[in-house]
Amino acid sequence: MKKIIIVLSLVLGFHQLSAQNEQERNHPFGQYFNLLNGSNKSSLKRIELSSEIDSTWEKWKERGYSFGFDPRKTPMYTSVNGILSTPYMIQVRGNADERNKKRWGFHVFEGYAKDDKSRITMLVNKHIEEEKPVAELYYYGTVYNHSANAYNWFRIGSDVKNHSFLFSRDKALFYGSLTMSNAFTLGNIGKDDILTTKPEGDDENNAEKDAKYVNYKELKNAKDGTMFYDKENHIVVIKVNGVWMQMLVQALPKGVKYDF
What we know:
It is built from three helices and twelve strands, in the order H-E-E-H-E-E-E-E-E-E-E-H-E-E-E. By secondary structure, it is an alpha+beta fold. The protein has a four-stranded mixed beta sheet, with no helix packed on it. Strands 3-4-5 form a three-stranded antiparallel beta sheet, with no helix packed on it. A three-stranded antiparallel beta sheet has the order 6-7-8, with no helix packed on it. The protein is elongated and about 80 Å long.
């Protein structure tokens, strides 16, 4: 009887050891590096990398790491000390707890400059404008607020100085030509679209009022050649030699008619 018990104990111990070894092979770093099944019916594997939550992590003291995250709910950054390359794609998906997974629940990409403070950022669905969600792309500087000075130029088209197209918070500078395949609309500006003093507080919180102040500031400092449509007086105006002047328009020639 004792021999039978000893044999059963050895078999059970060997089975437990095999199961443990199998678990260690499948999960060599526990919760940090996991091999998961592709599906319930498949033995094929996929990889999952994870970091733990540690609110005392020294990087949380740096704004570029902690801003927009709750260190009590957000895992520490998982780092790859090498070039990350894939023949497929890098994807950021929505989730049930966006706020502690994307930064503020919006940011899907950040790339920092050599000062480790200014960055290019892409985010989605922070705002609804013109009845649609907005994706936003910008180069954020070191002022760390929502003023115009906080945003650097974002160049699209090339990396050649004084070429291509630059975009900032309220300005766009086109070095190249612009070809329109549809209509071009001037700004329709009236008294209700102008605010002569900058509203106090954060520009994001005062977005509508601040936009009216931007209108005033840009028209006040407008260069020769600037045009807009005065919607109250129903005239097109242009700045010539430092003076705003009306552009003359006339009725369509006889026989010219549009169906729109």
